[in-house]
UniProtKB/TrEMBL annotation:
<dbReference type="InterPro" id="IPR035990">
    <property type="entry name" value="TIM_sf"/>
</dbReference>
<dbReference type="GO" id="GO:0046166">
    <property type="term" value="P:glyceraldehyde-3-phosphate biosynthetic process"/>
</dbReference>
<feature type="binding site">
    <location>
        <begin position="9"/>
        <end position="11"/>
    </location>
    <ligand>
        <name>substrate</name>
    </ligand>
</feature>
<dbReference type="InterPro" id="IPR000652">
    <property type="entry name" value="Triosephosphate_isomerase"/>
</dbReference>
<feature type="binding site">
    <location>
        <position position="173"/>
    </location>
    <ligand>
        <name>substrate</name>
    </ligand>
</feature>
<dbReference type="GO" id="GO:0005829">
    <property type="term" value="C:cytosol"/>
</dbReference>
<feature type="modified residue" description="Phosphoserine">
    <location>
        <position position="213"/>
    </location>
</feature>
<dbReference type="GO" id="GO:0019563">
    <property type="term" value="P:glycerol catabolic process"/>
</dbReference>
<dbReference type="GO" id="GO:0006096">
    <property type="term" value="P:glycolytic process"/>
</dbReference>
<dbReference type="InterPro" id="IPR020861">
    <property type="entry name" value="Triosephosphate_isomerase_AS"/>
</dbReference>
<comment type="similarity">
    <text>Belongs to the triosephosphate isomerase family.</text>
</comment>
<dbReference type="InterPro" id="IPR013785">
    <property type="entry name" value="Aldolase_TIM"/>
</dbReference>
<keyword id="KW-0597">Phosphoprotein</keyword>
<keyword id="KW-0413">Isomerase</keyword>
<comment type="subunit">
    <text>Homodimer.</text>
</comment>
<dbReference type="GO" id="GO:0004807">
    <property type="term" value="F:triose-phosphate isomerase activity"/>
</dbReference>
<keyword id="KW-0324">Glycolysis</keyword>
């Protein structure tokens, strides 16, 4: 049984005061860490404060991207080494917004995934197709290629501990969710790709999230599907009330 993992991706939202208020309210809730893993991927600016505020609670803190080098002359960038030093545990890698607006390639994603493991960070590796690719029936091909490229050269043990987030680009922030069956089909294709590349034990352990307009009204059906082990959530992770509803559903699947 794979433990569900619900991760909020706050993107470029919230001030420090709003972020601290959110975590203060969230940690008052009774969420069973044994039943659901809870992650907040916050802007890098607040990571330090949020790591401190969530110590000893059910909440883990993640970053939204990282640079693959340990250190160096890379103005504006943040390394895995620096994230580890703060006590950050997760990092989103290859989000479609980074691929689209910041030219992140499959090769860069692969380097970042490897570097994340060098610094004991769990990567949440994002893959997904455009609407055009879906309409041309290329979804499974595109997504499988992205997964294999991201995991090239990664050890079986590390693949097992990776989180894959299937986020169809056309479903992000649009209110359009993939149907639970369609999302499950793609997540199954991802698991089969991992089976081919890394074997049965890895494929049955790796957790695969769905992301794209997940909300309290659709989470239950998504999580009821065999190959969907959690959600990567944008909009609905910004309010404590809606985020907690997602966690409550995940606790009971
Ligand atoms: O991009 C996403 C999470 O990484 C999804 O965002 P929304 O939940 O706002 O569609």
């Amino acid at each position: 049984m794979r433990k569900p993992i619900i991760a909020g991706n706050w993107k470029m939202y919230k001030t420090l005061a709003e972020a601290e208020d959110f975590v203060a309210k969230l940690k008052e809730k009774q969420v069973d860490h044994n039943k659901v893993e809870t992650v907040i991927c916050a802007p890098a600016l607040f990571l330090n404060q949020l790591v401190q505020a969530s110590k000893g609670t059910f909440i883990s803190i993640g970053a939204q991207t990282m640079h693959e080098e340990k250190e160096g002359a890379f103005t504006g960038e943040i390394s895995g080494h620096q994230l580890q030093d703060l006590g950050v545990n997760y990092v989103v890698i290859g989000h479609s917004e980074r691929r689209q607006y910041f030219n992140e390639t499959d090769d860069a994603v692969n380097k970042k995934v490897q570097a994340a493991f060098d610094y004991q960070l769990t990567p949440i590796i994002c893959v997904g197709e455009t609407l055009e690719q879906r309409e041309q029936n290329e979804t499974e091909n595109i997504v499988s290629n992205q997964v294999m490229a991201a995991l090239e050269g990664v050890s079986e043990e590390n693949v097992k501990n990776s989180i894959i987030a299937y986020e169809p680009i056309w479903a992000i922030g649009t209110g359009k969710t993939a149907t639970a069956d369609d999302a499950n089909d793609v997540c199954q294709a991802i698991r089969e790709t991992i089976l081919d590349g890394f074997g049965e034990e890895v494929a049955s352990s790796v957790r695969i999230q769905y992301g794209g307009s997940v909300n309290p009204g659709n989470i239950e059906e998504l999580l009821s599907k065999e190959h969907i082990d959690g959600a990567l959530v944008g909009g609905a992770s910004l309010q404590v009330e809606s985020f907690v509803k997602l966690l409550e559903v995940a606790e009971n699947v």
